[in-house]
Design a protein that fits this description.
By secondary structure, this protein is mostly beta strands. It folds into five domains: 78 residues, Immunoglobulins (Immunoglobulin-like); 67 residues, Immunoglobulin-like (Sandwich), CATH 2.60.40; 67 residues, Roll (SH3 type barrels); 88 residues, Immunoglobulin-like, CATH 2.60.40; 177 residues, Zn-dependent exopeptidases (Aminopeptidase, 3-Layer(aba) Sandwich), CATH 3.40.630. It is built from six helices and 41 strands. Strands 9-11-14-13-12-15-16 form a seven-stranded antiparallel sheet, with no helix packed on it. Strands 10, 17, 18, 21, 22, 23 and 24 form a seven-stranded mixed sheet that branches. Strands 37-36-38-41-39-40 form a six-stranded mixed sheet, sandwiched between helices. Helix 1 crosses helix 6 and helix 3 packs antiparallel against helix 6. It is flat, with a radius of gyration of 28 Å.
Length: 631
Amino acid sequence: MKFRVAALGLHGCLLAACARSPGSPAPWPDEGGASPEADSALPPVPSVDGPLDLRVVYPPEGSLVSAVDSSFLFGSLGSGLATLTINGAPVEVWPNGTWLAWVALPPDTLLRFALEARRDDEVVRLEHEARRAPRFAPGTAPIWIDSTSLTPRGEVWWPAAEPLPLRARAREGARLRLILPDGRAVPLHPLDPAADLPQRDRFAGALVGTSVGSDLGPPLGGVTRRDTASPVLEAVLGRDTARVRWPLRVTLLQSLPQVATLDDDPRRTGLTDGVTVGRALPGGTYHWFFPAGTRAAVRGRINADLRLGLSATADAWVAADEAVPSPMGVPPERAVVGSITSTAIGPDRVQVRIPLSYRAPFRVDESELEVVVRFYRAAADPNWIRYGATGGVLQRVQWSQAASDEVELRFTLDRSVWGYRSRWQGDDLLLELRGKPEIDRRNPARGRLIVVDPGHPPGGAIGPGGLSEAVANLDIAFRLRDLLHEAGARVVLTRSDSAAVDLWPRVRLADSLDADLLVSIHNNALPDGVNPFRNSGASVFYFHPRSVALAREVQQQLVARLGVRDLGIARGDLALLRGTWMPAVLTEGLFMMLPSHEAALRTPAGQEAYARAVSDGIVRFLATQAGREVP
């Protein structure tokens, strides 16, 4: 997987493959309730009375705001004794002169905000402008087509016998048809004529065995880019007609499939993790993790998303630039999974060698005591399963032909799963399984190696007073390191200064050190259009099941020590958590955009409270894993 950094500017985490608006991994429901400061245990905001200095930190001048009718602005005044209005409405100012406003947005594309700050007889006025992100508005026209709703669009490769779904949005009650360049017409029908609005303005159709425009060539390889006429979508309602160009070219795939070999680092930069991620649909969340060298048949492509046929019933979408045409041609009908050998490589881990006739795609899933590997386009033929000297970690191996072209291997451990990792060696898959280590019941942190990751830079949030999240995270990490040292743990930081560190090297460091735990420290923000007064609080994210208990313990301590709303734990599709071979969590303890939270993060007391909450959560987790009851 190429290391892609989503630099989210003023607010938000670095979330590789995050498809949402900049901000936290997920906008939390607007549940109402009191101001987040109502029951906070955070240090009080200090009083500041300096020269009047009106600043808007977010949104930056001229930036796009992705919100419908309301959103937030924040910044500082230089004095907590000053007052502030935005478009005539009063805005709360905190004692240190910072402010956060939830404002109604004008309906125009250009968003103008008139800010006026006053302190005694001094007045400062500021005209601040931003732009509304493009959004289709039907208006009152008798007939209309939402040109942004047309899917698919661009360049498509598709099997001749498989319908290519078409989707569009147009005026309710209209009759739609797609007019192809050769004059043929394809009708689109309402998705559900009986449905309530707004679903009645959605239409669907399909192209079957129909190419559109000039041939694009094979899905992997050169694309012929000749100018060609585009189809036209026509909507008719009574005497009114609307037409829009549908930017689409479709090439039908040959009956003999092209074969892709996956490689996330074709230029050999050494800056990737050697994994291509697969999604169940284009732009969806990550679901498969294919080591470099995995081969699969190509079943389609839409622009930069390549569709792989994993088996008769399973497809995965991967980045087309992480796949190359296989020089070996079409793979055998099914990869053969041979005899399995396991070998102990430590007191709490075992390596399993799984031979295959070629590098077939697979998926790994874990539960509390099991790791399950499912091979696609495969047939099972393990004459024997050799356990060898497994050190008592691997209890049992079972295999089954789960489907005509899918093989399932089930590995049962004699202790809780602590992690796994996999890689190709030739055509053999090497699977390393890690069980829970022996933990000292009296002093559960003693000797444990914990990697603490101060999130960012690059990117990260900025508070209304200008505090960088990267700085706040590092201050907390230093204190967390000291607390964990006092508890008997060994601690390594992924960074100790302001230099930028990409995501994958942070994970690779923890992996190379064989760390017991990885904890990443962050502070949150929200995307445009989500009310920060009702949707802020503490949350902890995990990815693998092994990390749930750790996330829960840390979350409970954050809420208790910081006195903020409990947003709960959540499974997050975060790059820092996916590729770990140990329990790993990412904390979002406070919100940078809230003046009281930012002020607390500037103080030793606030940093200490955050760090102690995480430290206590870690120690409690280790204690429970050691079999000790924790009140």
